[in-house]
Structure formats: C-alpha cells, structure tokens
Design brief:
Order of helices and strands: HHEEEEEEEEEEEEEEHEH
Number of strands: 15
Radius of gyration: 19 Å
Shape: globular
Strand order of the largest sheet: 1-4-13-6-7-8-9-15
Strand content: 25-35%
Distance between the termini: 45 Å
Length: 284
C-alpha cells in the first residue's frame, strides 16, 4: 500500500529532526576569537555571547581558521527596540583589496518597524550585488539560525533552513565566481547610520545604547584551507560537492519562490536606474 501524503510529511519531519539533532554546536573559543574591541564582547559560561555597540565602538569576532567551500551557521538574536542606524553582520571574507565576501547584514530600524536583511556577494573586490528581504518573524524576540552554504555550484543564503537567495556559478557565461580564495567567518555589530536605516535618514539614538546582539550555536562544516597554498586541506570529496548539491530540491525551490514573492524588497538585478549595464549574472 502506498504512503499517504500525511505519512510522507510525517516521515520527512522525523528525518529532518534526526538530521538536525545529529549536528552539534561548538563552543565559541573552539572556532572563534575577538578581532575588534574585545572589551565590548561579553562572554559568560553557559550564556550566549553578546556583542555590544555604544558611542565609543562596535566590536567583532573572527574564525581562527579559513575555509574553502562548505557551510557555516550561527544562531542570532538581534538588537531589541530602537535599533536604527545599527548593523549586525555575519559573513565570510578573504583578505586583501581583491577579496571575496559573502554577507548577511541585518539593518536596524526604529521601534516597531521591521528589520531588513541585506545579503551581498563580493567577487575579486567588487560587490554591489545587494538583495534585501523582510523576515516572516521578529528576529529580536528569539534566536534564529542564519547559514551560508558555499560550493562550486552556487552560494546559498538560508534563514532557519529556508533559502532566501541563490547566487549561481555562471563562469561558463563569463561571470566571475568566488572559488580560489579561502575565507574566514566573521560577525560584528557596528554603527552605519549614514546608510543603514531608511537610506541614512534615521540616525542612531545613542541614548538607547548599548545596543546588544546575542550569538550562539556556532557551526562550521567546511574544508580548512592549507596555510601554504590556501587550498582545501586533505582533498577528497565532501557532501557539498555532491551532484545533488548543485541546486535546490523541489521543496526548497518552492520555499525560495515564496520568499521572493512575499519578502524580497530590493534586488539589484531589477534596479535598472542604478546600472547603465546590468551585471552579467543578471542577464544569463
């Protein structure tokens, strides 16, 4: 007898639950270290890590190692209340002026107005590939999981496992793709009131400082880069290299379409006044 739709759904949920519970999070000190204003980073045993921003400084932390392809995730609870002018960032980046970078930037807002999530992709030092999304929940009320998956096929930005953006490898069409620079994993909180909230019209209200973002659930499932060559240590084939990871599943494609329809508020590929010539990845 065939499976009913309810049975199949239940089985999928059970399998997903088993998969999620099999992934363990590392302690902060196992993977990361402060790189900016350590005195603004509050770490207490058994508590989420807190990054604080005041009128003297923001702060940030970085991974101890760099990676070439894989997935990294963090659980983040964003600044509550009036967060206008502030940016919380979770990203991957290589070094140097011709760096590659994959960004989550959470743009604060005045009390009662929603956060916007900006993603961006830098290749060989050039970005200007912003998308902005609203969220289907209040990111200040609880922790949510934000993930970056990077493989040879595409870059995938996920929120609680739901894909909100795909940046495909279109080298065959002459579009640059980040593939040969190892990247570290970073997080920071900083003041960007010249652009972050309503195009910079709303400034940071320092009477509400300190602004605090909390982090936990650090996961890096990626290939560590060799210091000498910058390549992937040990070689081999990893799960993110599998043909099945070349694209989204039918369910994930439906999720992405839902996000694009309901929550996409800005897409650089549709901003014709901004670009005299549309970027190649938008055309191919």
């Amino acid at each position: 007898m065939g499976w009913s739709k309810v049975s199949r759904t239940l089985l999928c949920c059970l399998c997903l639950g088993a998969l999620l519970t099999s992934v363990s999070s590392a302690d902060f000190g196992d993977l990361f270290q402060p790189y900016w204003a350590a005195d603004h980073i509050v770490a207490m045993d058994g508590e989420p890590l807190k990054l604080t921003l005041d009128n003297t400084s923001g702060c940030g932390f970085e991974s101890k190692k760099k990676y070439l392809f894989g997935q990294t995730s963090m659980q983040i609870k964003l600044v509550e209340g009036d967060s206008a002018g502030t940016v919380t960032a979770f990203y991957m980046s290589s070094d140097g002026p011709n760096h590659n970078e994959l960004d989550f930037e959470f743009l604060g807002n005045v009390t009662g107005e929603p956060y916007l999530v900006q993603t961006n992709v830098y290749v060989n030092g050039t970005g200007n590939r912003e998308q902005r999304h609203s969220l289907w929940f209040d990111p200040t009320a609880d922790f949510h999981t934000y993930s970056i998956l990077w493989n040879r096929y595409h870059i995938r930005f996920l929120v609680d496992g739901v894909p909100i953006r795909m940046f495909a490898n279109k080298e065959a069409a002459g579009v640059l793709y980040p593939k040969d620079q190892a990247m570290g994993v970073y997080a920071s909180v900083w003041n960007a009131d010249d652009w972050a909230t309503q195009g910079g019209r709303v400034k940071t209200n320092w009477s509400h400082a300190p602004f605090v973002t909390a982090f936990r659930g650090y996961e890096i499932d990626a290939c560590e880069a060799e210091e000498a060559t910058g390549g992937c240590a040990g070689g081999g084939v990893f799960w993110w290299d599998a043909p099945a990871m070349s694209g989204l599943s039918p369910h994930q494609r439906r999720q992405l379409r839902w996000v694009q329809r309901r929550h996409l508020v800005y897409d650089y590929c549709k901003d014709r006044p901004r670009f005299h010539e549309m970027p190649g990845e938008c055309l191919s």
